[in-house]
Amino acid sequence: MKGKKTLTFLLMDAPFENARTTTALRLIDIAARRGYDINVFAYEGAVYLPFAAQKQHANAVHGHDVVQEDHPLPREWVEAVVQEAAKNGGRVDWVNCGLCVDERGATDAVAGVRRGSPADFWKMATSSDNTLVIATK
Amino acid sequence: MADYLMIESRDPFDSSDVANFLALAEGLSKAGNAVTLFLVQNGVLPARHGARSAPLAVLAANGVEVLADSFSLSERGISANRLIPGIKAAPLDLVVDRLAAGCRALWH
Hints:
The structure holds two protein chains of two kinds. By secondary structure, chain A is α/β, with parallel strands linked by helices. Chain A has a single domain (6-134), classed as Hypothetical Protein Ychn, Chain: A (3-Layer(aba) Sandwich). Chain A has helices spanning 19-33, 66-69, 74-87, 98-104, 118-126; strands at 6-11, 37-42, 91-97, 113-116, 130-134. In chain A, strands 4-3-2-1-5 form a five-stranded parallel β-sheet, sandwiched between helices. In chain A, helix 1 runs parallel beside helix 3. The mean pLDDT of chain A is 96. Chain B has four helices and five strands, in the order E-H-E-H-E-H-E-H-E. The longest helix of chain B is centred in the first third of the chain and has 13 residues, at 18-30. The two termini of chain B are 22 Å apart. The interface between A and B is medium-sized, with 19 and 18 residues.
């Protein structure tokens, strides 16, 4: 693909906590729609973003059942950007930091996510057109 | 000289170190670099007329391109016509454009 780019993103925030996650996935989605090759290195709490055991829940305070609440799940967003990139001729290589996974017991991730180490981030960064580190506060 | 993309996600009411990030933008610009400051999330709050908007106006007047994420503005009910002079609304796509173009990118 002419003009195809490779971008790397490093994420650190755990899901359900900060708007940085939303912005990061918005950026990844834009790149996926362009058919870019995208590398994501998920560090620390971010390894829970693709955690497969995330479940929707009801909201008794609002009187909503599970369907009415329709709680968003980051694992579905991760799956969506992986599919979007593939649909447009790109790919998402999502690497969860292995030590961070072990510390948190976040071993069960959605399809398309692999285990790695910070060395993978170095390889990603050195082979990309650009890298954006979205660190926690 | 280089092209810099500086992304500010924090607001100065919550994070006093925003001033340091703006000072870095000013310094890079004065050194002859092309600097874009992209405001996102609560970082767009001082783009309105208000108590903390003056530093952004000064940056914009001194050669830094200051942009505010249109989605973040909409989320917070800030219309583009409420932005201070020198700041424009822009889609997040611009960040991906600049990353793809090889700008040196910093997130705060």
